[in-house]
Amino acid sequence: MARTTDPERVAQRRETIAVAAAARFAEQGFEATTVADIARAAGMSAASVFYYFPDKRAVFRAVFERDLPLSRSLMDRHAGTAHPARAIVDLVTDLAADARDPHAAGILVELLRQVDRDPELVEVVARTEAVVQEGLVGLITRGIADGTIDAALDPVETATWIRNLVDAVYLGAHPDRDATPALRRTVARYLAPGPNPDTTGNPRESEAK
């Protein structure tokens, strides 16, 4: 008789492995981290890790695959808002929420190192970025239409800039320093309608001073 599997249990075990692996990859780097290291951190055998993942790269990808459903849920939560500009500021707060995790900067640096070596990883990251980009573009477009966001801003370029700003928060993250207030102020001021927009695409002069 064929053995049946419990999808919920499989998902939980994969999640346990991915969370444990993220910490090891952040601390030691992808190359120096072994499957045995991941197994010890997850409290299981190396054979168990290989039961749920074909290889170490698949485990690394799983760390970032977790972001896709979370991003979709986040965008869906704000999609119907009556206040697009305010929703964007809340969105960047949510997107940067994990930046104070002690492993945040390390895992992002390792992602940047590995992304050119794994086409499947590129696809994983691209899918999540596309969800966030699309959600931001929609909110920015609506904010421009209702007058709460500067009409001189290009929705696509602005959405990309906001995502890059969130990434910068992670790269400069420190567990003892909360960059969220500065992030919120920067995004809110950039989006706000102003009398002197810089049409070159740079921050307005009034904001740069």
Automatic annotation (TrEMBL):
Q: Name one Pfam family in it.
A: TetR_N
Q: Where is this region: Disordered?
A: 190-209
Record feature DNA-binding region, as residue ranges? 34-53
Keyword annotations: DNA-binding
The record places domain HTH tetR-type at 11-71
**What is the residue range of the signal peptide feature?**
none
Identify a single GO molecular function assigned to this protein.
Answer: DNA-binding transcription factor activity
SUPFAM superfamilies linked: Homeodomain-like, Tetracyclin repressor-like, C-terminal domain
Q: Which InterPro entries match?
A: Homeodomain-like_sf, HTH-type_TetR-like_transc_reg, HTH_TetR, Tet_transcr_reg_TetR-rel_C_sf
Known PANTHER family for this protein?
Answer: HTH-TYPE TRANSCRIPTIONAL REGULATOR PKSA (PTHR30055:SF226), HTH-TYPE TRANSCRIPTIONAL REGULATOR RUTR (PTHR30055)
Q: What is this protein called?
A: TetR family transcriptional regulator
* Annotated source species: Embleya scabrispora
